[in-house]
Structure formats: C-alpha cells, structure tokens
Amino acid sequence: MACTGCGTRDDGRVPAGCKSNGSCGTGGCDKLEVFDWLGNLQMVESEPGFAWVEVRFKSTRKEFFYNNEKLPLQQGTLVAVEGSPGHDIGTVSLTGELVKAQMRKTRFDPEQEAPRKIFRVAREADVERWQEAIKKEDEFMRHARKVALDLRLSMKISDVECQGDGSKATFYYTADGRVDFRELIKILARDLRVRIEMRQIGYRQEAGRLGGIGVCGRELCCSTWLKDFRSVTTAAARYQQLSINPQKLAGQCGKLKCCLNYELDTYLDALKGFPSPQLKLKTAEGTAVHQKTDIFKGIVYYSYLDRPEVLIPLSLEAIDEVAEQNKQGLIPGSLADFKVEVKINEPLDQDSFTNVIEEGSLDRFDRKKRNSGQRRRPNSPGRNRNQRKSKPQSDAPKS
Description:
This protein has helices at residues 98-106, 124-135, 137-150, 182-192, 203-210, 221-224, 234-239, 246-249, 264-270, 316-327, and strands at 52-56, 62-66, 78-82, 87-94, 118-121, 156-162, 168-174, 195-200, 281-283, 286-294, 299-304, 307-315. By secondary structure, it is α+β, with helices and mostly antiparallel strands. The longest helix has 14 residues, at 137-150. It starts with 51 loop residues before the first strand and ends in a 72-residue tail after the last helix.
C-alpha cells in the first residue's frame, strides 16, 4: 500500500516514509490503512467532535480509545494509552466521524464497552522506552520458540508484541487444538522478566499479521484492508467452473483464498438463466447428461451416457426446446440437430508482433549452434582476417 514517493533510507531496506502523517492520497504504508477522506474538510465549530479515536499498534491490531482529555489529535500522532497494566504506545489512525463507521463495521458498541482512555501525547521519554521494547521482540520470539520446542508443544509462535512501557509481551501463536502452555509461561516469565500473555489466532489472522505478496502480485487482502474473514468453501470454486486443485485454490495461510468469494455473487446471478445440471435430455440416440457449462459464451455441453467422451455444445434456447418436447412426450432424433458451432480463437501470426526495442528477431535463440567438432582455423599473426594474401612466387626459374 506504500506510494512510490516514499523512497528508502540509507540501508536501502526500510521505507523512509512520505512524512504526510497519514494524509497520503495513494494510501499509507501500514497494514489495514484507512484513508480519511473527511480529513481536509472543515467541520462546524459549534458541533462537538466525536470523542472516540482509533489507534493502531503493531501489524493489524487496532483498538478504540476515549479521548476524555479532549486532546487535539490527528492521524499519525503518537499517543500513550491505557494498557493492562501500565500504558501502551500507539499511532492515531483515524479521528472524527469516520470512527463511527469503523465501530459499526467491527461491531464495537461504545455504550457497552468499558472506555479505555488516552493519557497524553507521547513524550520523548515514552518513545525511547517504546523503541527499546520493540528491539527485544525478535529475541523474545526466538527464545519462546526454543522453549516451546523443548517442551514439545504443538504450537507455532508467529509473532510477539511488546507493550509500550516494556512491562508485558504478547505472544501470538497458531495451533490445531488446545495447548497447555502453563509451563511455557512460567519459563518465559522467569527468563524474560516481563508479564506474559498468550493469544491464539487463526491461520488467516496469522497471514494478515505477517503480510506477504499474493499470486496476483499485490499485497495480501487480509494485510491491507480485509477484516471480516468469511468462510470459503469449495462450492464457490465449483460455481465459478474452477478445477478443485488445493495447490492453486489455497492461499499463503493454507486455507482457501478469500478472493473466491469476490465474484461468487456475479456467477450465481449469471447461472440463474442456465438449466439445472441434473437436467437430462432424451433423444432417439439415447439420454444425454450435463458435462460442463461455459458461462461467458452461454453454451452448455452435453454428452450421451454411452459416449461420454463426445461433447455436444448446445445453446440455452436449444436446451429449453428439447426439454419442452420431453415434457410433451416427444423424442427428438438427435442432439446433433441442435448443435451450435463454437468458434476457436485463432493464434496470432508472428508478423503481428513488432520488436519495439530492436533486440533482434523472436527466433534468435532458435538458431542451430555450431558443431563443437568443427573449429574455425586460426589465422596467422601477420595475415589480414578479411582478405587472404597470395603466396609469394620466387624469381628463380624452376629446375
């Protein structure tokens, strides 16, 4: 989601940031970034602003806090908020009226939830302490993985987040079932000298926290904008005429890709005009059953029971006509009488491609290699390579 004007720092690995404090028009550089399209609009001064603020922490964790001190906050401001226990440091990701929309989307009711407060704008000492806690996260995760491996616990610790004041560390893990990690907490609390909290997350949440690039070439949807993880079944792939291949349908989380649900409603609406796959057509040559459907061309392929390898393309009108005749007790002669011609896209000629960068012909790598046994005869040192000199003749007469 980062814009192209961010650039990098001296090491070339960490984005330098556009320094727009969250008002970048192309999207921010953080996970689950939300563009505040009301940020540049001047609100009515007589109307009191919304007191709740959305604060972003590490990765995809976002929470709502109550601005009881009425601090002048904007996107990108570091604030010290109420933790459990102590205080935590986060970045203001959204303020104003759009916070209400985010609350409705996440089903957060401010009247039923106990409001957690914003203490102050983060001071320099708070930021330094917070950065020191962040530097310990990699060490904590390596030590926790080693201890979990020694205890033979069937769990995968994928991420760790230290609180802003350094008093607590939250470990995120994935597991197939229930894990007894009481001994793990005792060892970690003794070695790390902080309060330990274990939080189990799903495989989709793990992919969102870690991030990555999908097969489409873009960042993962669960890491950029997707929050509600709806269940994805193989029925969505069948409705879209996709082959049930787990290697192609599974995402980086190991589950079915969430993008299978994006166009499912469109396919379901298109399939309403197609006949049922259980519809059988009776003809004099035999009974024909459904094989496959081409939604884009509006063609359904049928085949006889005794010849399943021979596909007969039929239009929707032809199927309705044959089905209506079967209801009236009439049996047509053959489905070949209703067959439609399917146009096959012809391959493009080689002449239609042009070499715009003038690097040679497209078949320059197909030329036959020179036989390694036939070596070129080397030229003599004083002889011109392009023109051979004739052999000098002696003036003396031959004997």
